[in-house]
Amino acid sequence: MEMLIDIASWVLLMAGGIAMVISAVGINRMPDVYTRLHAASVADTLGAGLLISGMILQAGFSLVTAKLLIVLAILFFTGPVAGHALARAALVAGVRPHVTDPDEADDACGGDFFVEAVPHETVRDDVDAITPRPGLAPAGRGSKPTG
To answer: What pTM, to 2 d.p., does this model score?
Structure first.
């Protein structure tokens, strides 16, 4: 019986790890914040859920299992809220979704919701147009904020 639990646990752990890697690749390949949030939600729910499920099988019936279940519940409740808050903040900040054909946005959203969509080719132009606030240096450039 212990060998079956070990096998099931490792299958869950491997599947969770694969889901996390696929999600990381998706985050790097997606063109805008909205699709990146979708890829991140895969890691948040599926990947973490599978990993924690595998750990629960390994822990058996103990206090560790209760703690892992609490962590799993926290992830499942806070992940969608954080994703929604980030998407809402991007929308309020004026970040536009990038689509291949701008007419797709009208068809997908219907007549009650207007989305000013831009084609994929202009993604880099939008990124290049971003300027930092005075006194702040771009992140990861090795320079320190001034002021």
So the answer is: 0.65
Tally the residues of the chain: 147
Q: Where exactly are the structural domains of the chain?
A: 2-95, 96-135
CB 15 within 8 A of CB 43: no
Question: Which tens digit of pLDDT belongs to each residue from 74-101?
Answer: 998 888 888 888 888 877 776 767 766 6
| 72-76-79 Cα angle (round to 5) | 125
Q: Which residues contact 16 (CB under 8 A, 6 or more apart)?
A: 46, 47, 48, 49, 50, 51, 52, 53, 54
CA distances to 15, 36, 114 from 56, in Å:
15, 29, 46
